[in-house]
Structures are given as C-alpha cells and as structure tokens.
Specification:
Blueprint (H helix, E strand, L loop, with lengths): L2 E5 L5 E3 L14 E5 L42 E3 L1 H7 L4 E5 L9 H14 L5 E4 L3 H13 L3 E6 L4 H9 L3 E5 L3 H15 L2 E2 L7 H16 L7 E5 L4 H16 L8 E7 L4 H8 L25 H10 L3 E5 L1 H15 L5 H15 L9 E5 L19
Parallel strand pairs: 5-13, 6-7, 6-9, 7-8, 10-11, 10-13, 11-12
Antiparallel strand pairs: 1-2, 1-3, 4-5
Helix pairs in contact: 1-10, 2-3, 2-6, 3-4, 6-7, 10-11
C-alpha cells in the first residue's frame, strides 16, 4: 500500500518522502495513513518469515524495498496461569518482548524507523535514550551501515550502556534525565544534519510497534483480548497498538471491540497518569522524575496527547505503581513463569493486580500484560528506590 502522513494535532497532510520529523505547523507527531483498501487478512498466508515484517502488506514498505532487519518480532505470547492465580486473573497472558534481537520491544520501532530513514537518504542518526532504544538504534544503525550518536542519562543501567557501545555507537552520558538528553540530541541533529530518531519525532517507530497488536490478534485467533496493560514511558507501543486495532477493526480482520488499553507508570514519574486523573488532554512535565524503571523515567512525553486519546477511545485508563511494587512484580513474573522480567514488565504485573482487585478488569476476562525487555540488561536487581547512580 502507498501512504501519506497526517498530523496527529492539526490534521495537516504531507507526502511521505524524505526525512519527516514533526509537523511544522504545531510540532505534533505524524501518523501514517494508508491509501486504498486495506488488504484481506489472507495476505498473511503468503507472507514469508516469522518476524514482524511478515506483516509488510500493512507496513510502510514498498514492494521493491527490503527492510533493515535483525529478525525482530514474532515474540512469545504465553499463558501465565500461576502468575494469574497470584494476582487474581483466571485468563492472564504475557507478551514477552525480551525475545527480540536487542533484548526489548524497541527493536520493532527502530527497525521500521531505520528502514524508512535509510530509504529517505539519512547519513547519520541521533537519539536520546533511557537505555533500550539506544541499544536498538545502535544495532540497527550498524546493520544499515549508518553512524549513530546516542545521548543517555548517566544513571542508565551499565549493561545497557555497554550494549550501546558494543554496537559501535558514539555514546555520550548526560547528567540529568531523558529530557535533557533530548535537548542535546536535537541540537546535534541540527548541527550535523543527522536524522533524529527520538520517540515520535519521526513517524515510523509507531508502525513498527503496531505489529505488537497484529501479533496479539493473530495469536488469539483474531479475537481481541478484553484488556491490555502496557508500561508507558514515551508510549509508542501503546499508540501503535491502538492504531493497529483501529485499522484491523475497520478492515474486518478481527472480532469484538477494541481491548481496553491501560498505561502503567511509576509513581516517581507519572505525567500520563496525572493528566488522566485530571481529565486533561495533554501532559504537563513531571518535576524531578525518579524510578528504578529507567524506561518509565520520561517526564514530558511528546506523545502524551496521543496516549490519552488512545486510553479514552479504548475505555481504558492509567495507573501509577510504586517502585517497591514494580520490583515485586518483576520478581513474581520471573519466579512463577520463568520470564526474565525488566522493571517495566514488573510495573505491568503490579498494575494488573490492582486493576483486577479494583474491578476495572474482571477476574475471568482475557488480560494481556507486557514484559517489554530483558531484566538481565538492567544489571543487579535493584532494591526499591535505589538508582544505579547511587
């Protein structure tokens, strides 16, 4: 399919060529809009491979193009009976993104973003990272043969920093949080003509993350679950799934209503939860963000308005959990299901327990929680409230 770009804020349209960043009119993220009729689901029977690019018929990839890939996607969606019993859910499933080539869900978005940027003529990349995105960007940049500059908070777990360096990226540590790194990345992009791969500052990471929703739907026989709990820092995966479900419902690929989407954040950095509880349409920057879940330490997400829209339209919600609870959740996932959970995955478990206990999710309802990355990449198991930097 061919596609154009539509501004998620003001609705402005533009062609998809070149190296788009954000809307020049309102600085909101672009969304990919496909032209023509969505293909029939039978197209997947002719698809090659088992990873996310088997969905290329509904992704921004032209027939003559080859993706920049390391075999990302196709990760397990596992029934989790013992963990479900522990948190009160009789039909709990875990989408384990630690099985991706770079150890996290970031592989999907960066594969798509690098693919389109290379096609658009990019000669260098830059991005800020809380850890996993930097690892993925470095890996896919190496795969494409394009240099990558990464700015990371000094408090980022050491194993993640080591991975970024191992893939050959130019890594620079910054005193501060990911917002401070983002300012440095934008300055670098302007000075060096590098493509900024920051979350939602280009339109294609959403399309890579969209495949999370496609895989859940296909694995479940095209019947959507009742609810999904997703740890949301920048929120690209949440937005991508929301977009995927809308497209599949409109095309008749799936049965049933859209799953209720629940964003989970740490109580030490919860701008989306605060905006949700206030009934706001945008997020305000979170002062002094602190959490052991580095991927949730995003004080001013560019996609805040889009996340809130996805939560409202899906009839979901937003939940903040303490660092003590998310560390406990990661331990439960590991001990009861044998999954090496990252702190963000632990946050999803903690939030799911609260949602079931509070009645927002029925005990017998099909519930999917996300483990977004491998716990081993965070180094030592952190005690609640303890930073790598301390």
């Amino acid at each position: 399919m061919d596609w154009t770009l539509e501004c998620s804020g003001c609705g402005q349209r533009r062609e998809a060529g070149g190296l788009p960043t954000v809307c020049p009119g309102c600085a909101s993220p672009w969304l990919v809009r496909y032209a023509g009729r969505y293909p029939d689901r039978a197209v997947l029977r002719r698809a090659d491979g088992a990873g996310m690019w088997r969905y290329r018929a509904v992704l921004p990839l032209r027939e003559s193009e080859a993706p920049v890939t390391l075999g990302e996607g196709g990760t397990p969606l596992l029934p989790a009976g013992r963990l479900g019993a522990a948190i009160g859910s009789a039909d709990l499933w875990i989408k384990d993104e630690s099985a991706n080539p770079t150890g996290s869900f970031k592989a999907r978005g960066l594969s798509a973003a690098v693919t389109r940027a290379v096609a658009g003529g990019a000669v260098g990349f830059v991005l800020p990272t809380a850890g996993n995105a930097g690892v993925a960007a470095a890996a896919y940049g190496a795969r494409a043969g394009v240099p990558v500059k990464v700015y990371a908070p000094r408090a980022t777990p050491a194993p993640l920093l080591a991975q970024i360096a191992a893939y050959g990226a130019d890594l620079e540590l910054v005193d501060g949080h990911i917002g401070d790194c983002g300012a440095r990345a934008r300055q670098y992009a302007a000075e060096r003509s590098a493509m900024d791969l920051s979350t939602l500052r280009e339109p294609y990471r959403i399309e890579g993350k969209k495949t999370l929703g496609l895989e859940i739907a296909e694995r479940m026989g095209w019947r959507l679950p009742g609810a999904i709990v997703y740890p949301a820092g920048g929120g690209t995966g949440l937005i991508g799934m929301w977009k995927a479900f809308l497209e599949m419902i409109e095309a008749g690929w799936v049965q049933g209503p859209m799953p209720r989407l629940f964003a989970v954040q740490s109580s030490g950095c919860a701008p989306v939860v605060k905006a949700w509880e206030a009934g706001a349409e945008r997020c305000e920057p979170w002062p002094d963000p602190r959490t052991v879940a580095s991927g949730l330490r995003v004080p001013a997400p560019l996609g805040g308005a889009l996340m809130l829209r996805a939560l409202r339209e899906s009839r979901g919600g937003a939940v903040a959990v303490s660092d003590a609870d998310l560390v406990d959740g990661a331990g439960l996932m590991a001990a009861l299901e044998g999954i090496d959970a990252c702190p963000e995955g632990g946050a999803a478990v903690a939030a799911a327990r609260r949602l079931v206990a509070g009645g927002a999710v029925a005990p017998g309802e099909r519930l999917v929680v996300f483990n977004t990355g491998a716990g081993v990449l965070y180094g030592r198991r952190l005690a609640p409230g303890v930073d790598e930097a301390t």
